[in-house]
Amino acid sequence: MTDPAVPRLAEDLPDAAEARFRALADTMPQMVWSTRPDGFHDYFNARWYDFTGMPVGATDGEGWAELFHPEDQPRAWARWRRCLETGEPYEIEYRLRHHTGAWRWTLGRANPIRDPDGRIVRWLGTCTDVDDLKRLEASQALISQELSHRIKNIFAVVTALVALSARQHPAAAEFARTLRTRISALARAHEFVRPHTEASRPTVGSMTLHAFLAALFRPYVSDDGRPQVEIVGDDMGFDDQSATPVALLFHELATNAAKYGALSRPGGRVRLETSTRDDRFLLSWRERGGPTVRPPERSGFGSSLTRLSVEGQLGGDIHRTWAPEGLQVDISLPASAMSRRRAALRGDGNPIAGSALDTGTA
Q: DSSP secondary-structure letter at 225?
């Protein structure tokens, strides 16, 4: 028989079943609790009392609420009342007072138990101590933010050194200007893929290829403020391992278009279409409304850079066509190229030859 001083979980639950449930609940690492349909707490397992240090039965009814951090109580009460009204599952994080007096972050969850007619007859819930995990996440976020800040400073220092060197060597001014724009493209790639806080993430956007390219092409707008580069087609997940080659590739294409192609004229436009076909990811760059273009007499550094980005780092192919209506660039990549880290974890990524540009990260 159960102890008459301890509330029963249900009046019609056999003593043997009651004993089995309590034995099971007391061996779980989580704190287990249950309530009546109206939310009145009438059971807590041994783990709850070990954690809180409260006497058995002291937290029945609404006594449990006093163990919640004062700043978390309004939010927890509001969520709990809504669940009681709607019957939706309960889930919330709050700080719970430990028997040592410390406040520890806890994940609370509960689901309703219904009878055959769908009426809620009881709520059964758990509390899981997640304080160590929360502290670890906070520490990792702080380290990531500090590392990102230092990397941004490196970009700024390198850009300043290039500018200073150009002033000392005027003949290299054009080279220095081009180099600074490439460094800026890498800095934008880093800004996009770096670890973000909840406050900074909305200003960057989703971690997708289209969002990344939209940020990269933001400076190219017509006189009426409309973007000159249109991005259409299939979007794709995007990670930091692909950021450097993609940033360099499309920075070069956009820069050349601004100098010699469609983006050099107010009415010029570029359409970038992306699509998935079988195990390949295809990108089609089409310039329209610019001056007549023709193949260059020799391959410059920019062309070599785009080829190394596509072939050396992304494991793909690139083909240029100097059509009368404008430059056309067709790029074919392995489907895994945009998420190389995920592909490596799955073991299905293509081996990619190393190159002078293969830094591995942004």
A: S
